[in-house]
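Q: Got a minute? One more chain.
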Amino acid sequence: MNTQISAQLRTELTLHHAATVLHVYGEVDACTLPQWRTILDEAMAAEGDNGHLVIDIREVTFMSCRAIMDMATRAQQGRVRLSVVNPVAGVTNRIIVAAGLTAWLPVFTTRTQALAATVPALPLPSRQPPVRLSPLPRTSMTA
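A: Always. Here it is, folded:
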């Protein structure tokens, strides 16, 4: 693996009584996306079925929309409940809300809140894509 890319994204997995916490540092962008997907899969496998994975992104300097969708996709599979820790109401939080992903990716401002959170056993939202954009109408340009 390219060490420069590895330096852009670092993670640490810690086990807690109620959940597994994935601490994420750096950037999750197009260059680190394959590494990010592997990290998510390994963290979910470490937690096991019906567990709770808390993804702490306090030290993330950039997270792409695709990386957020990768988290949501894995949460939709329903094997492991995911929560996100992000104390700053920034771009990542706005993307999660705007894309309608809060049912799969609840965001908490502290790790303590995320670890203590319990989600009632509600049916998962539909597995259809969270956001459907209609194509822009074609316009003709005449001079």
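A: Confidence is low (pLDDT under 50) at residues 120-133.
Q: Perfect, thanks.
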